[in-house]
Specification:
membrane; Endolytic murein transglycosylase; EC 4.2.2.29; two-stranded antiparallel sheet; 9% strand; lyase
Length: 352
């Protein structure tokens, strides 16, 4: 029995791994983990990003932005997965303070190395163009020309063509610019080699992308064509300074159209005469232009500017009212009335 115990002990001792071999295995495992970690870090920096859906576009980097803020924007726009990783890499590589302002073309497959290389190059790849709500074709032309690549004349020539318009964007009356109303207000990044026609096409496509099926259905319920709808929205854009007034102004215009009452919009005179005034004289209200809604009944021949989404949605959300009149005070707040007597009272109390 004693001999059996000794034999068993000897067998167990024979199976023991020498301490040196154990240490080597641990070192090998640790080395392997370090190599895997290094490979993961290297791929995270040099490798393409396949973890996000593919997208490409422009990113605007301001001169006052930190690497952390840039990382947040890139994450929000879907170009990188982690703003923390971007900030860490930018800091470790010493590039956090070297990011330059500009407009850069990026896509979600770019490695962080390629992305940071572009952002620190300072080589802007596009002009940034801001088109506010209500801008006319002429105003957009000036904004485009201010970037110094496309002349005002070239833009106006492109805007005078209806070749790129979709069928619903075409009216049946003579207008100043057939593209007026359909150059969607937005921030655009214009490639340096873009032509005036390219810019027009970009804006028209943007309008069509924003006109949802739900909006189209709502417009049809109002017994308006899309062209009439945009024309009406362009009037509201010019008349309303504050959001709460837009649906009510839409209601006033709709009520007037139903009873064949002239719209009498100062904004229509402004467009017709090419002037911008707080008020127009009696003689000016008789200015002979089909755009002058003081002189001619109904909507003008076409839009008088390029309305934003808020004014288009205001038509769809206009409440049923009996309002036929409105007047604005010196701050742009509007006061509404159902009768001429009420309107004149508002004029005396609020008109500057």
């Amino acid at each position: 029995m004693e001999q059996q115990k000794q034999t068993t002990t000897q067998l167990h001792q024979g199976r023991r791994v020498p301490r040196k071999k154990k240490g080597r295995r641990i070192v090998a495992v640790l080395a392997g983990l370090i190599c895997l970690g290094a490979a993961a870090v290297a791929y995270g920096y040099f490798g393409p990003n396949f973890f996000l859906p593919y997208k490409s576009g422009y990113v605007h980097v301001r001169s006052d932005m930190t690497a952390s803020e840039v990382g947040d924007i890139l994450t929000d726009k879907g170009y990188i997965a982690s703003p923390l990783w971007f900030r860490a890499v930018a800091t470790v590589t010493g590039q956090a303070g070297d990011i330059h302002a500009g407009e850069y073309t990026l896509d979600s497959r770019m490695s962080l190395h390629a992305l940071l290389d572009k952002l620190t190059s300072g080589k802007s790849e596009a002009d940034r163009l801001v088109v506010p709500e209500g801008y006319t074709v002429r105003e957009i032309a000036k904004a485009v020309a201010a970037n110094g690549r496309i002349s005002e004349a070239d833009f106006l020539k492109a805007a005078s063509s209806s070749d790129q318009l979709l069928p619903y964007m075409k009216g049946n009356r003579k207008v100043t610019f057939p593209t007026e109303g359909f150059l969607f207000p937005d921030t655009y990044f214009i490639p340096y080699d873009a032509t005036a026609d390219d810019v027009i096409a970009m804006m028209i496509k943007n309008f069509d992308d924003h006109l949802t099926d739900a909006m189209r259905a709502g417009i049809a319920k109002q017994n308006l064509s899309i062209y009439q709808f945009v024309t009406l929205a362009s009037l509201i854009e010019k008349e309303a300074k504050y959001e709460k007034d837009r649906p009510l102004i839409a209601s006033v215009f709709e009520n007037r159209l139903k009873i064949h009452m002239k719209l009498q919009s100062d904004a229509s005179i402004s467009y017709a005469m090419g002037t911008h005034k707080a008020a127009y004289s009696i003689n000016e209200t008789q200015y002979d232009s089909p755009y002058n809604t003081y002189r001619y009944e109904g909507l003008p021949p076409g839009p008088i500017g390029n309305p934003g989404m808020d004014c288009m949605e205001a038509i769809l959300e206009a409440p049923p009212t009996k309002y036929l009149y409105f007047v604005a005070d010196k701050d742009g707040h509007n006061y509404f009335a159902a009768t001429y007597e009420e309107h004149m009272k508002n004029v005396q109390e609020h008109m500057p």
